Amino acid sequence: MELQANPQLLWFIGIYAVLMVGIGIYMSKKVSNSKDFILAGKSLGPLVLMGTLLATWTGSGSISGGETSVAYSFGIIPSLMLMVPTLVGILVLYVIAPKIRAFGKYTISGILEAKYGTSARNLASVIVILAYVGIVSYQMTGLGFILNLTTGMSVELGTVIAAVLIVFLAMIGGLRSVSQTDAISGFLMVGGLLITVPIIISVAGGWDSIVANVPESHMTATGGLTTIQLLGYLLPSLFLLLSDQNMYQRLAASKGDKSSKRAALSWLLVMLLISPAISIIAFASRSIFPDIDPGMALMATTLALPLGVGGILLAAAAAFIITTGNSYLLSAATNMTYDIYGKYINKDASDKKQLVMTKVFIVVLGAFSYLLISYFPTVLEVQMYSYTVYGAGITPAILAVFFWKRVTAIGGISSMVAGVITTLLWELVLNNPFELNSSVISVPVAIIVLIVVSLATQKKN
Prior knowledge:
The protein contains 20 helices and no strands. The chain is mostly helical. The protein has one domain: Sodium/glucose cotransporter, CATH 1.20.1730. The radius of gyration is 21 Å and the shape is globular. It is found in: Membrane. Pfam families: SSF (PF00474). GO terms for molecular function: transmembrane transporter activity.
């Protein structure tokens, strides 16, 4: 089947976008200070918190990269394996949620500073901003794919429109509005995906027909990937989630420890439903559309579905992407305001001034995110790069704060430096030798450096 734009699908995205903008504007009226803007006044109950955790984590990385690209390119089993790192990460966050809330920090950098000092805070801020700008950039491209599919406009123009929408929604009301739009989007996602699965299997001629129309390697355990290559897809998402500033900020914004734990557990249960759904839909797409960009696998199925179902799925895909984009943009802007502007440029800035600067940085970082996507040819490539820079640079050091009392300041900082440098060398200088994702190299290096340097500097701590 050939791809052919269906402008009627645009109505579903348009209605969703108008609803989100309306909610954002309404909730923005409840923002009176920085705490409201960044932590939603610590008022999130378990239902809204679960929705915003779900919607923030499951974005274009799943819809255009992650499970979707892997299911289309390598098969159903490798794609289903991508669910495992997420489940493990959520369980770890469930355990440390009360500690995260007790810290009461706006950023990951603040937590690292408490353990390792100012140098760790500065380095972490740079890592967070670098990685999150990358993550926001592929959300923009993901929405550009959707607009291309529905209207026939170029992906480039669709990406520009996506950038404007993501920046606006992040800027209008901060986490106070983002959490509410996330929650609504989260439920739309679950409903859209679960409705689509049985219908797309039927449209493709049944499961046997799908299996018959995909390469034989797509039904093997690794889809033709070596074990090391497969680990290269699994490790980045795990190590991003374990220290994702967005998740930490949302858990810190909960009403209390019970709310955060209930939300994390509910999030895990919902992921058990939607991750396999995404994999199955993208796998069926390989049978129906054998020669398309892997990043468009899920969205292309909307053209083969009945209009109503296709429209709901497309709106759900847009929801995934927009909510993730504005959340990561808000989070990176928070680092700019509190870790750079407030620390070094204007130490005496009032709360109102900090609020204004956060909005300014949302626009600036949004522009950088848009520019970055031109340097990476695929969504999956920029996804893996961004995840690994963050996962190797931040995660070992942040987990040591919660789980290893013997870690030293020098050990933590050395681990962060080693993780980032190894990732950048592997990706940008060596150009991924042996076709291995840098996470296979940089994450172990960061962990080893953390342990060795900490043990060697115990007396200096």
